[in-house]
Amino acid sequence: MSTQKVRKMSKQPGSFRGRAKGGALAIVLAAVLVTASACGSSDSSGSSSKVDSAGLKAAEATVAKASERPTTIPVTDPVGKPIPKGKKLTFVSCGVEACALQGPILAAGAKSLGWTVDQVATDGSAEKVQGAIDAAIRNGADAVILNAADRDAYSKQIADAKKAGVQFVTCCSLATAGDGLLYNTATDKQNGPIGDYLAAKVVTDSKGKANALYVNISAFQILKQVGDTFDAGMKKYCSSCSVDNLDIPLTSLGKDAPDRIISYLRSHPKVNYVALSVADALGTGLPAAIKAAGLGDKVKIVGQGGGTQNFADMKAGSIDALVPADLFSYDYLMLDALARHWAGVPVNDAGPPYWLITKSTVPSDTSKPFPVVEDYQAQWDKLWGVS
Fold first, then answer.
1. What does the similarity note say (predicted)?
2. Does the structural domain 88-189+327-352+371-384 have CATH classification 3.20.20.70?
3. Which of 24, 75, 181, 384 has its CA 20 to 30 A from that of 242?
């Protein structure tokens, strides 16, 4: 069987599987996948010698906007009514570091509202998560928070929670709100702009002469929209640029993913940009592998997400740009949905803010999660009337 599947300009990265522990959040979360086909006559780099000037100007404008650090949280209207105190929340961790990091963020936000959070660790398996939700319902939780909730995997638990009057909220999932699920944020549609930002950065940086490889993990359908908007953005900003797609299987994560990417780059020497659907899962070890392959001066890396090593690589100049996951917005948006529900006001259908960062703008301390909006806590407290 072939060690890698290739396809040209693919639009279908596969389907999400709840069994994939925390991959969905390594978006948290996780990672997708061709025969190179440059359009027009090619120069020595393999991209067309004709630059789409209008597209390049549009890409530059997008990058300028995306590079500005957001200063406002996604929700701006105050709750306006008293929010009940004393609520007990259960946060069921999905089994990876990104989920574990969210527990303390949720606890801090809940404290502002006079609530408590029971943080339950699991290995991310459906069986363990189901058991944790069942226990939360039995123990009288007022709400359950589960990232990347899959309706198919947890349909019984969601139904049981609804029957018991327990609210269920999630993020980073394909699930739609309703029928027992109060709220979902960081949805596939809300994440779409990330792909456009990355495409604009590639086109701007290459001055309209890019041959990009989009690397994805097709097992996570939540990532599909980012891949679609990356492809669309490349076409919009640079009609003569090319985009190929490489799918990395789940079994390669943490193992030979960099080797698969390097193998593709060697067999497709025109590629000069690699865009990662999830930098955390796909980018660790990749800059070193690219350098060892003698491609360090040619191939640049952009991507979604980013862990400690990715940011260190960026500071060293080995990663060109990232759109980091804002765990703080994920958590506070879920808390806000609960607050508004219990206060009897409409829940906002809001997604997290996005920020395109580079070596010159990456925060100095990336050893722990950082908020995209620096004074997020004060802004949320004001909306909740607890400042």
1. Belongs to the bacterial solute-binding protein 2 family.
2. no
3. 24
